[in-house]
Design brief:
Layout lengths: L2 E7 L3 E8 L4 E8 L7 H11 L6 E8 L2 E3 L4 E3 L7 E3 L1 H8 L5 E5 H12 L8 E6 L3 E7 L2 E2 L14 E4 L2 E4 H5 L1 H10 L6 H9 L3 H25 L3 E5 L6 H15 L2 H6 L1 E4 L6 H13 L5
Parallel strand pairs: 1-4, 4-8, 9-14, 14-15
Antiparallel strand pairs: 1-2, 2-3, 5-6, 6-7, 9-10, 10-11, 12-13
Helix pairs in contact: 3-10, 6-7, 7-8
């Protein structure tokens, strides 16, 4: 059975693990991302790769928090020092010439993880809607990634939505920090977990805010349903942990505004892949590069 090394690079941490074709992860590790200089994160990534036995590995997949331009072979990750049009693949190949690398944007690795190992397994049309610090989506249509001409496909945080009778970008009112800001304006001091806990305890203000946010999410879901006719949309990111509080208003709004045939066929679920989702997705990216099924 082939084994792939998946590496999830973020602005605060680098997670890595070996993933087999069944989606089982071994050797999982996580270290803080060093940003002492423009070279620190790259050098640290190379150390992580070197720490694994290359004789066992069919390839190395890397997910980055930004844009991985497949044509230029460069990455742009604004929250990692020095990663501005960085030729990451070629730099890694210089250090590890015997290794096959695949570098992908993290929204693409998110949907690949679901497609091969999660809620999208066995499906052809899958969307991973990531609602966290920001909002983005990985989109697979007919088993192919939707990239866009500049690798910016899936920037759904820019979808226009109506909130309190005004137009906003989706990310402005539904990302984690946005919910916390809106909560603070209502006297709900605390993070997303605090607001959700108060809602579960029956706090009318907290419940009302999350219902408003759910309606906004439903508007965005209706755009995705009507545009891509997906089989499943998987909710990921920090907001996925409170999906049970959002799914009813989101689902009702989605049904009301979506293309009526498409919405009957779609399933919307919270991701169940947990902490290793980024590692699974990165491994899935290189698995496809090496002839594995996508």
């Amino acid at each position: 059975m082939r084994v792939y090394l998946g590496i999830d690079v973020g602005g605060t941490k680098i997670a890595a693990g070996l993933v087999n074709e069944l989606g089982q992860v071994e050797g999982y590790s996580k270290v803080p991302t060093l940003q002492d200089s423009d070279q620190s994160a790259l050098e640290q990534l190379q150390k992580v790769i070197a720490s694994f036995d290359h004789g066992r590995i069919a390839g190395v997949g890397i997910g980055i928090p930004g844009i991985a331009d497949q044509r230029k072979g460069t990455v742009w990750a604004p929250n990692i020092s020095g990663w501005d049009q960085l030729p990451l693949s070629s730099l890694l190949l210089e250090r590890f010439p015997e290794v096959a690398f695949a570098v992908e944007s993290d929204r693409n690795t998110a949907v690949l993880a679901e497609l091969l190992y999660g809620a999208g397994r066995g499906r052809r049309d899958v969307i991973a809607l990531i609602i966290g610090t920001g909002i983005g989506a990985g989109i697979v249509s007919g088993r192919h990634l939707v990239r866009g001409q500049s690798e910016i496909g899936g920037a759904v945080g820019w979808i226009p939505v109506t909130f309190r009778q005004e137009m906003h970008h989706f990310e402005e009112v539904a990302a984690g920090p946005a919910i916390e800001r809106l909560g603070s304006d209502l006297g709900l001091v605390g993070d997303l977990a605090t607001i959700s806990r108060r809602a579960r305890q029956g706090d009318v203000t907290a419940k009302g805010l999350l219902e408003e946010v759910g309606v906004v999410i439903g508007q965005a879901l209706s755009v995705l349903v009507s545009t891509f006719n997906p089989e499943v949309i998987v909710i990921e990111g920090g907001v996925s942990h409170i999906w049970d509080l959002l799914k009813d208003p989101a689902g009702q709004t989605m049904v009301e505004w979506s293309q009526p045939l498409s919405v009957k066929e779609v399933e919307v679920v919270a991701s169940q892949l947990g902490e290793v989702a980024g590692v699974l997705g990165a491994a899935a990216a290189v698995r496809g590069l090496n002839g594995g099924e996508l």
